Amino acid sequence: MMSQPVRLGVVGAGYWGANLVRNCAQLGVLSVVSDLNAATLAAVHGAHPGVAVTLEVEDLLSAPIDGVVIAAPAPLHASLARRAASAGKHVFVEKPFALTVAEAQSIVEETERCGVTSMAGHVLLYHPAVERLLELVRAGAVGRVAHVRSRRLSLGKLREHESVWWSFAPHDVALVLEILGETPLEISGRQHRFSAHALPDMAYADACFADGRSAHVEVSWRDPGKTSRLDVFGSEGVLTFTDSRAGASLTLTRCGERREEHGGRGIWREEPQTVAFTAGEPLRRELEAFIETIRTGVPALTDGRKAVEVVRVLATFDACSGIPQEALV
């Protein structure tokens, strides 16, 4: 177990990397930031004058730090993660962990060979409401889980390196796998483009699991109603997590099937209950988990091996829908 303070470097301080930089600084673990944009680095230096900045990622990798947080463009994730591991640094990789299964596996293999840990940025699993939802599912609050439905919609930033499926769905796939505790037996669905650009803008995926369980994931960056919603349907109720500009909420609606007097089927239900959860910024909690795994060596909830399974599901859906992401890299 490490007793010295943990020191981190961040590769990529742009659109999402700026949030990682801010949280690492607030946690007191930020030592160095690397980015290819001099203006971006100037802004980092202005906000955090005690932090080293560099245009060269090699300078960051050779610095006396314990871990590297990677928020560079998605096609660079695997190569940067392997380089960081080879330099003896623990690795946190923003989603998507990698753009192919082979690349994802190569990250895990290299970190294990070098004796460091790997972790994926599946931040939804560190949301306090989702943590509470998982506790309730495991406690049997909705009985046997039969179906999970997740929708992530926005009129958002269009990516040039990964489709909406690879940009949005890692969050949802990671959560579905955590709830159901296994990988799907079969995946189907469709992806749609709004223009001649190669990258899909909407995706609808369905997955079949053992014992008849199922999941549905819908993602779009062409929807004006920015929101994310997750429903967990069980034999004795439904848990619903929503997150929008108005804030996050978690509700439990107890309901189920019953036999009617005439012998047919009916539904019983109770009024929805608002479920309380602790406050906390998911990204900060995620980085705290990375710091903890560096200190203890205990794998994080979103460690590299779980990240590989998320990438495997993403790639399997791409293959079945006829638009493999790796062909777009």
Q: How are the elements arranged and paired?
A:
Layout lengths: L7 E4 L5 H10 L3 E5 L3 H10 L4 E3 L2 H5 L5 E4 L6 H10 L3 E5 L6 H14 L3 E4 L6 H11 L6 E11 L8 H17 L5 E7 L9 E7 L5 E7 L1 E13 L2 E8 L2 E13 L5 E5 L3 E2 L7 H15 L7 H18 L8
Parallel strand pairs: 1-2, 1-4, 2-3, 4-5, 5-6, 7-10
Antiparallel strand pairs: 7-11, 8-9, 9-10, 11-12, 12-13, 13-14, 13-15
Helix pairs in contact: 4-5, 5-9, 7-9
Task: Explain the overall architecture.
- This protein has 329 residues and is of the alpha/beta class.
- It folds into 2 domains: 8-121 and 284-303, Rossmann fold (3-Layer(aba) Sandwich); 125-282 and 312-320, 2-Layer Sandwich (Dihydrodipicolinate Reductase, domain 2), CATH 3.30.360.10.
- The chain has 9 helices and 15 strands.
- The strands form 2 sheets. Strands 7, 8, 9, 10, 11, 12, 13, 14 and 15 form a 9-stranded mixed β-sheet that branches.
- Helix 4 runs parallel beside helix 5 and helix 5 (101-114) packs antiparallel against helix 9 (304-321).
- The protein is globular.
- The two termini are 39 Å apart.
- The relative contact order is 0.16.
- The mean pLDDT is 94.
